[in-house]
Specification:
The protein folds into two domains: about 30 residues; about 80 residues, Immunoglobulin-like (Sandwich). It is of the alpha+beta class. The chain has one helix and seven strands. This is CARDB domain-containing protein. Keywords: Membrane, Transmembrane, Transmembrane helix.
């Protein structure tokens, strides 16, 4: 009889600890949204000129369609017909872009604006893959 009470007490204590840990740490476990997009517009201005690119990644669990990247100014927007989950595309803003922010929309209802950022890395030598 005493053995079963001890077993129940140990099992109950273990269950309480597991429940506590789940409540504390479950919110930090990332859950993938159905439609989600990561956008990283980069601009580097130095003595050699201005280098820019816009990285776009589908971070959702479903495909995104008609992804429109509007650079502002007189530049014609880029359009990605379909962006699969996990797929990443790097674009170079065309001539006439304002180079202060990009505006992205999709058929699935994503509508976001991101400002260009300057990376904190060392100076670039030549074209380091950042478009032109």
């Amino acid at each position: 009889m005493k053995r079963s009470i001890i077993t129940v007490a140990i099992g109950g204590g273990f269950a309480a600890v597991v429940a506590f840990l789940l409540l504390v740490f479950l919110p930090i476990i990332p859950t993938s949204e159905k439609y989600s997009l990561a956008v990283d517009p980069i601009i580097v201005q130095d003595a050699m000129g201005t280098e820019t690119h816009v990285a776009i990644k589908n971070t959702g669990s479903s495909s995104l369609t008609n992804v429109v990247i509007n650079y502002g100014g007189t530049a014609k927007p880029d359009i990605i017909p379909i962006l699969e989950p996990g797929e990443k595309v790097s674009l170079s803003p065309p001539e006439g872009s304002k180079l202060d922010q990009v505006h992205i929309t999709t058929n699935e209802g994503i509508n976001m604006t991101k400002e260009y950022r300057t990376p904190t890395s060392a100076d670039f030598v030549g074209n380091s893959g950042y478009g032109g």
